[in-house]
Amino acid sequence: MLLGLLARRLSCKFVFGGRSLGISNTAVAARGRPVNHRRFQGAMASSSGTPDSGERKKKGGEGLKELDPPPEFLGPRLEMFERLKKEYDQWVEAQESTPITVTLPDGKTVSGSSWKTTACDVAAQISKGLADNTVIAKVDGELWDLDRPLEKDCSLQLLKFDDEEAQQVFWHSSAHILGEAMERFYGAHLCYGPPIEGGYYYDAWMADKQVAPSDFSSLEAIFKNIVKEKQQFVRLVVKKEDLLEMFKYNEFKCRIIDEKITTPTTTVYRCGPLIDLCRGPHVRHTGKIKAATITAVSGSSNPWTGQKPFNVGSLKLSYPWMGQ
């Protein structure tokens, strides 16, 4: 079945840095055209690597249960990412590095080197506290990963959580952590999950599986483990044909790539074993989202087909605002 993880019936408390965050969000459903469910159910059974019994074994820390063996699509996807990342890093290394001037909002300037200096480097030059509390950068008006090299002379803003755009990035990164937990616990095929006002959602194909309240403690344990690992969010520019190969196991992703990607290249992001089609940007690593608690779930209509209720779960998040 297609499980819609919407920001609607899951209650979570999130902490960024050492301080609490919280808001209440509004339900939003994704929409799309019908997919071939029978065809995809067969693909799920053959490619996910999920045992027929749905067996989950304890791995890692206390209470941490996930599929064993893990979904089969994880290995080939990661191998392809690492190969393409090596090629991309070689291309970046070959770019000529020249002196650049970075202009801050107060008019002060910082010197750097193109294709070497990052926004995080600039923040750290100002103060360690600023580097630690910055959620995301903005370069010449464009949101920019803190660890992505600056390419030329530019203006730079360092956004903290009190900025609305920084909050969107925070929620989006939270969604990727939930997506990783879904893959590791259910063997789910992720579909679509952008941030929305006050939170985020993820749709995922889960064949004959259903989400249940009894799963929450296990999902939560995986989520917390991902946070503890401080998995770096890694950006990679990928050609469209390579994207189709990378996500060939996932009919939903391939449809998004075919219908929505109109440029020769776009980006994917990796955190841990999760690799997902994504424009980004993201927080530096998963450790920036300190905690989450899943407390409720309810059903909804199928957001991909617009048909009658199709065993779609809806989840809600609530975040505290950044406070003292």
Write a brief caption for the model.
By secondary structure, the chain is of the alpha+beta class. It has helices at 37-47, 74-94, 119-126, 128-133, 164-186, 216-229, 240-246, 251-260; strands at residues 2-5, 14-16, 19-21, 56-58, 65-67, 99-103, 109-113, 136-139, 142-144, 154-159, 189-190, 195-196, 199-200, 202-205, 234-239, 265-271, 274-277, 298-301, 309-314. It folds into two domains: 2-86 and 164-314, 2-Layer Sandwich (Threonyl-tRNA Synthetase, Chain A, domain 2); 97-159, Roll (Ubiquitin-like (UB roll)), CATH 3.10.20.30.
What would you say this structure looks like, in words?
By secondary structure, the chain is an alpha+beta fold. It folds into two domains: 2-86 and 164-314, Threonyl-trna Synthetase, Chain A, domain 2 (Threonyl-tRNA Synthetase, Chain A, domain 2, 2-Layer Sandwich); 97-159, Beta-grasp domain (Ubiquitin-like (UB roll)), CATH 3.10.20. 31% of the residues lie in helices and 23% in strands. The strands form seven sheets. A five-stranded mixed beta sheet has the order 7-6-10-8-9, with helices on both faces. The chain has a three-stranded antiparallel beta sheet with strand order 1-14-11, with helices on one face. A hairpin with a 2-residue loop joins strand 2 and strand 3 (19-21). The radius of gyration is 20 Å and the shape is globular. The termini are far apart. Residues 1-53, 298-302 and 305-324 have low confidence and may be disordered. One of its GO terms (cellular component) is mitochondrion. Belongs to the class-II aminoacyl-tRNA synthetase family. InterPro entries: Beta-grasp_dom_sf, TGS, TGS-like, Thr/Ala-tRNA-synth_IIc_edit, tRNA_SAD. It holds the Pfam family tRNA_SAD. One of its GO terms (biological process) is threonyl-tRNA aminoacylation.
